[in-house]
Design brief:
199 residues; alpha+beta; Lyase, Ornithine Decarboxylase, Chain A, domain 1; 2 domains; 8-stranded antiparallel beta sheet; two-stranded antiparallel sheet; 4 helices; Alanine racemase; Ala_racemase/Decarboxylase_C
């Protein structure tokens, strides 16, 4: 990155000497803003840092940055299943004990990846594994070990609930990708809410 920046700023100097310098020069995305102060030219494109997400392990965010994006839904139904009952298409997950399975109205048409699968969500401040195949419009959770889960309970796919947090970086690790892809593939049919909080 330093060599690229040196070539770019060298070109800008040559253009300026010839009276051709562009009115606006920029070379800094989030990572460059955090790691290369010299890249802060006339403007910058902070991108992922605006969401409070680190662009890479080599460019961590300052400690006062916080995630600005979260992804939530709610429990649509809860069913009791006996041991041996399969869940979802193909019966790839089978209850090994009497289980409580919650359904959430989020599926791969919303950006919840099937393979490799999104692993967990937060319900009542605790982690609940996604079980069975993720469907187009729904996913199922094993909430057997989370007492009192009922229809309407908030579910967090990305963000904080109680004392636990599922970050976009954690989800990216499950999916074998980067946080950019995780947040960019939350599809348009997922409702967006913007909250303005100044602290």
């Amino acid at each position: 990155a330093e060599a690229q920046l040196a070539r770019f700023t060298g070109l800008l100097r040559e253009l300026e000497a010839a009276g051709l310098r562009p009115p606006c020069a920029h070379a800094a995305n989030s990572a460059a803003l955090l790691r290369l102060p010299a890249a802060r030219l006339d403007m910058a494109r902070p991108g992922i840092a605006c969401y409070g997400l680190a662009p890479s392990a080599a460019a961590p965010l300052p400690p006062d940055f916080r995630a600005a994006l979260s992804f939530h839904t709610e429990v649509a139904q809860v069913k009791e299943l006996p041991a041996g009952a399969p869940v979802s298409y193909g019966g790839t997950w089978v209850a090994t004990r009497h289980s409580r399975i919650a359904t959430i109205p989020v599926g791969y048409a919303d950006g919840l990846r099937r393979a490799p699968p999104w692993r967990e969500v937060l319900v009542r401040g605790r982690r609940a594994p996604i079980v069975g195949r993720i469907c187009m419009d729904y996913a199922m959770l094993d909430v057997t070990d989370i007492p009192g889960v009922r229809r309407g309970d908030p579910v967090t796919l990305i963000g904080q609930q109680g004392d636990d947090t599922i970050s976009a970086d954690e989800v990216a690790g499950w999916l074998g990708t980067i946080s950019y892809e995780v947040v960019a593939t939350i599809l348009p049919r997922v409702p967006r809410t913007v909250e303005e909080r100044l602290e």
